[in-house]
Amino acid sequence: MTERRGATTGRTGGKLLADALVAQGVTHAFCVPGESYLDLLDGLYSVRNRLQLVTCRFEAGAVHMAEAYGKLTGRAGVAIVTRGPGACHAAIGVHVAFQDSTPLVLLVGQIPVEETDRETFQEVDYRQMFGPLAKWVTQIDDERRIPELMAHAFDVATSGRPGPVVVAISEEMQKRLANVADIGPAEVLPPHPAPEALPRLMEMLGRAKKPLAILGGSRWSDQGKADIRDWLLANDLPVSVAFRRMGLFDGTSPNYVGDLGVGADGALVAKAKDADLILAIGTRIGEPVSQGYTLLDMAGATPIIHVYPDQAEIGRVYRPALGIVAEVNAFAAAAKAAGAVKKPAWGAWTKDLRAARVAQAVPPDYEGPLNLASALQALEKELPADTIFTTDAGNFATWPNRFMHFGEKQDFLGPTNGAMGYAVPAAIGAKITAPGRAVIGFVGDGGFLMTGQEIATAFHHAVNPVILVFNNQMYGTIRMYQERTYPARVSGTALTNPDFAKFIEAFGGHGEIVERTEELVPAVKRALASGKPAVVEIRTNPEQVTNRATISDLRAQAAKAAASVAKPATAKTARTPAPRRTGPRTR
Prior knowledge:
It is built from 20 helices and 20 strands. The protein is α/β, with parallel strands linked by helices. It folds into three domains: 4-178, Rossmann fold (3-Layer(aba) Sandwich), CATH 3.40.50; 197-360, 3-Layer(aba) Sandwich (Rossmann fold), CATH 3.40.50.1220; 372-539, Thiamin diphosphate (ThDP)-binding fold, Pyr/PP domains (Rossmann fold), CATH 3.40.50.970. The strands form four sheets. A six-stranded parallel β-sheet has the order 3-2-4-5-7-6, sandwiched between helices. The protein is globular, with a radius of gyration of 27 Å.
């Protein structure tokens, strides 16, 4: 072994990296092994009784699992991948963590430093590659700085607006010896609301007639969610949640009015536009929540009270009437202590919003033997009260959002950046993180075949999530847009699929096929009872491309829109020009 500066004692860089993870309280790390970090792998062997190394099948899957861990625990998830292609595969998970504000630390093997800038085998400049996707990117070339830089990586990932940090680890650094002490987490009190924040908030709330709360963000603790729930209920406020944040508030509560995200109920969007005060707590009010930046006036015509842990995000797009820099759980405790407004004027407003939520969740009479809305509502009654749900991106995901009512103790993990291929590895990561809880994954047929092979990881590590595959034999969301813009010109959106039940059975798992409404609940019950990783393939009606429209509906709408555009143009061309006046005008 090559030793640096004559060092003959100490730990190798690989051992220092493993010990640094343990020092930061890491319990799980998700990896695809590579030769660029063999020494770290050896270091992880020596801490195997304190840190579980989860071997995955694809780097994107590994990072999605780590990101799910971060969502569930509030601690930084850890993924480890090799250089070049491994890092490129991992990038999608880094983007998920960035837009979802999830704490994450990604370790990437790196080439030998002496080969830099030769375009050597698998060389990538990670500072440039990950710069726009991460909160911080660094590279460790000096083994003596491992404790310092690793500690800072975890600090950055979990502070302010949480997010991903990428740490490249050069190959030869992992082999050298160093005598340095480990560095543990710093005890840092979270930012609390300024002394005048809550009095001003309560004063503004007291003047409102139509307030609306929007809950979002990450790193909510159980206590924080309970505190904000108590305060919102004490003030009888209508509560919506940001895109794919259904786990933040009890969907069965009389104050829950729905989710503001992709596929949001039109009635809720209209009511939100009519609100006279927005309480945005933990959410950035990004593009999905703001309905493409059309929900609110950016100059602040509708007063916004924006609570966020990072001051740089407050006013970034929407100018608030009051910005409160505070960690979400600290704010929740302060809000609960502030109490309730005397004689709130919005009781009828809250009931109206709730009535709209209840009305849009009533299952329509969909054509065919499978009414997916009714089946999902029957299923929710049978699942454990602490079930963890994961979801992929796609039109199928709007069905559980609209028709299911997620309970107070349930968690809902989904990619707010719209990444396909998230749900299956996230479900596996969630089950590894919380083995005592049921985990249900929602995924489309397109998304499943992007990362569905990660189900092998579930077998390897003896966990048993249940994956519901919504099979309509197409990339449904893109087909929807295609039919709206180019009706009946189907190009690139059709899919050919395997028998998904046989796919999981080939691994030794439990497979089911559902084609009728009444079949879903028994199938999922059998899947859960099997104790094995399971796939329930739900064969949906391809014609019902969204929960609000069929392909025929979209084509008819497109034809009507085309006719309305063409009609005035035809009339104008056919009109006989009026004679020009040459004499004086008369009245």
